[in-house]
Hints:
single chain, alpha+beta, FAD/NAD(P)-binding domain, D-Amino Acid Oxidase, Chain A, domain 2, ten-stranded mixed beta sheet, eight-stranded mixed beta sheet, 24% strand
Amino acid sequence: MAQLTAPARFDVVVIGGGATGLGVALDAAARGFSVALVESHDFAKGTSSRATKLVHGGVRYLAQGNIALVREALHERTTLLHNAPHLAQPLAFVMPSYKLLDTPFYGIGLKMYDALAGKAGLGPTEFLGRNKTLQYLPTVQAQGLKGGVKYWDGQFDDARLALVLARTAAAHGAVVVNYCAATGLLHEDGKVAGVHCEDRETGAKITLRAGCVVNATGVWVDAFRQQDGEATGRVAKPMVAPSQGVHIVVDREFLPGDHAMLVPKTADGRVLFAVPWLGKVILGTTDTPREDLAREPRPFKEEVEFILSESARYLSRAPTRADVKSVWVGLRPLVKPQDDDGGNTKGISREHTVLVSKSGLVTVTGGKWTTYRAMAEDVLDKCFDAHLLQPRKPGTTSTLRLVGAGVAVDAQRPKISDAPGLHAYGTEQPIVQTLPGGDRWLGGGVTEGMVRFAARFEYARTVEDVLARRSRLLFLDARLAATLAPAVAAILQEETGVDPQTDAFVALAQLYVTLPA
Length: 517
């Protein structure tokens, strides 16, 4: 918060420290604008740490005929793999076929996917026989298996990517602050002129003045739009229809190897993923309308049953409720059309939307992680068009290497399917290892040095910050994360002098292994 006191005026103030807000802050800072970003909780605390961990063009969007969205996402996939090789990598998927026509039907569609990717493709689509499919997916249900299709997409660590976006933005002069809540908008002469903020640790208040304010708060954007409307005497119709996505994590024994499984059409027409990630397997995901905007949304009973029952149809050993290591939920900010009744999320846009109100508040929501950079460029273009900022040099983020990426494209590229460890730090590994306790493992792929690095360089304040987002242990094995909490807390207390909120984290970890009855 102290960073915000001088100056308290910026060219751009961004509200929201998720993928979109951080992308906007980086793009603006890289162009030379003075930028401040405030986040009410921790960076990527919301939806941006709860993705399916895929950098993808969107196979299902291709099936829906949304060619433009797929083409843009495929381009951005390549950009992300280039700019953050320590956090993103290619990943092979296999679609098992249980009907003779499934292999050619899906294979032809995926060949189109390859064609749209062009030179940005990660590998050719392959038609597989039964034996090859079993080789790639050794625990897939063998009874009735006819063959399969193999194709390529990407995988990444979402929360850690958010952190390097924040740090890269800071390296370009942006002021980025977590645990600093935007409490209201400042209006002058009917125009948005800044943001009122409050430090959530100290209660200190400050007003940040800016000619351009960007509302990038994901599923919560309507709250600020309503504030803006009330202040200017206008009605802001809600634009977000939240959709809930549930992910269940189980041990790797349920799907060993480095190939993910994709079932494009389950019993009710939804998609099922089984994705190897950081030594575990992610099963998901659902797409369920949800009215409330809880910070820690919990799964509905029918969502858990759907994922487990569908997994049982396609895996030779069916995961049960007892096998669940962690279950987590993200709220997707889907943008609804003007005539939408909020009852069905399948027809609602997955594309992002940027709106500029009469008072000049810029709101961006929708989209997905893969296209965060293109979304940020679009936001800046809209700011220029609305004369909220004077146009400057074209965006440079398409070739901007993120913190830890190094120089060579493939240098230190990890296998994200492997167990967690030092690889996510990229070129900063030596720094982590030379900190006190750099070689002392606490468990779950976490060292004392990683905790100190998180406190000193990655904005970590609490045990949850470390074990949920700097390390991903809460999302991988919540019970193990809870056992590490006291050791992590002691190191954080020593580093920051701030209450690390150990009890709150232990209670949260219990929530991540509690399934609805």
